[in-house]
Amino acid sequence: MSDLGRVRRTLAGLVTLLILSGCSQLNANTPSESPAPVSTTPPSDGAVSMAGRAPLTGVPVKEVPTRPALAVKISNTTDAHPQRGLGDADLVFVEPITGSTTRLAAIFQSKLPAQIGPVRSLRPTDAALLGPTRGIVADTMADRWVLTYFEKVTDVDDRGTLVVPPDTYRIDSRRRAPNHVFAQPAKLLTLTKRTAPAPYFSYAPGIAESSARLGTPATSVRIGYGGSSTATWTYQAKTKRWTRAEQWAPHMIEGGGQVAADNVLVLRAAPDHSFPQAKKSMSILDFTDTSGQLQLFTGGKVVTGRWTKAGVNDPFAFTGPDGKRLLLTPGTTWVECALTTMAVQVGRG
Predict the structure, then answer these.
(1) Does the residue 299 lie in any domain?
(2) What is the C-alpha to C-alpha distance for residues 302 and 214, in angstroms, rounded to an integer?
(3) CA–CA distance, 309 with 301 (Å, rounded to integer)
(4) Are 161 and 282 contained in the same domain?
(5) DSSP letters for 246-271
(6) How many alpha carbons fall within 13 Å on the CB side of residue 59?
């Protein structure tokens, strides 16, 4: 067995043991502060000022939370459903990880559920997606080379299962391993000095003023993640939101109904083959120092555009068909990250 294989097997075996026994300790890295000042000057392109709005949803709030963005890696296999706490996420990334399997990176800031999960491991793609939040991430660790890469390139506090106090995560004995580990956000946030994130997107005052005005009617979108694996979003005219389904059933949340979003972004990206340690079966998307096509689904419309990103921790730039920045509808956003070879089908009626 290779050294990498031994490390992988050792880490997998230790996750449950250390959570239950309390033998872990806090990461020696000192958390850094990352203030994110928000401009109060109204933009000139129709975007709202983010003053007085939740930074990751654009929704007006009486008091803007100062806590950092908490990202949680969540399993998305059939036996991981229904997922816990997912309905409180501000922003969720769906990532292909291997074969036809996807995994979620859900980001929480405006709301915090009591528990989130099932929690799974980091992947290389997470670095570019989570880097702009400059927050904290919960996970069940990863292969050593992935952890080394993530720690080296991101300005994000990794608070995985093996580097935190024992009561930070919980084992749910009703769930089968490996989908039985759940994060406790309130405890995780005591382990960092990070502060509120900068906005991830730009927002219009509402649907009518969003980039939907530049789009064409759409009733659904289906993303093919390989084999029979699909994710389908369907527009609900009554609520003006999009609901999600996996290929086997509607995507349900534990105790909270079906997954729904105000915005669905589909980002197309090329594969990243720059990691020699990665297995050939591993899907890694290239979101660093590059650009690609996007589709925004909001308000019953689809809008085409482009995304551009510089370094790992730099924000994405999203533009619409007119070359101006993309304006989303305030609310929850899900981002489906698809390889350029994956099929994306838009329903028109």
Answers:
(1) yes
(2) 8
(3) 25
(4) no
(5) ESSSB-EETTTEE-EESEEEEEEE-B
(6) 15
Place of tokens 């709301």: 111
- Beta strand 101-108 with 220-226 is unpaired
Question: Does 181 share its domain with 215?
Answer: no
Rg from Cα positions in the chain:
19
Residue 95 shares a structural domain with residue 142: yes
Is 12 exposed, middle or buried (CB count within 10 Å of its CB: 0-12, 13-18, 19+)? Answer: middle
Which residue type, as a one-letter code, is found at position 251?
H
- What single-letter amino acid sits at 63? E
What sign does the dihedral 102-105-110-112 (CA atoms) show?
Answer: positive
Amino acid identity of residue 326, one-letter, is L
- List beta partners, residue 171: 181
CB-based contact 154:220 (threshold 8 Å): no
Q: pLDDT by residue for the chain (349 residues), tens digit each?
A: 434 343 344 444 444 444 444 333 443 344 444 444 554 444 558 999 999 999 999 999 999 999 999 999 999 999 999 999 999 999 999 999 998 999 999 999 999 999 999 999 999 999 999 999 999 999 999 999 999 999 999 999 999 999 999 999 999 999 999 999 999 999 999 999 999 999 999 999 999 999 999 999 999 999 999 988 999 999 999 999 999 999 999 999 999 899 999 999 999 999 999 999 999 999 999 999 999 999 999 999 999 999 999 999 999 999 999 999 999 999 999 999 999 999 999 999 7
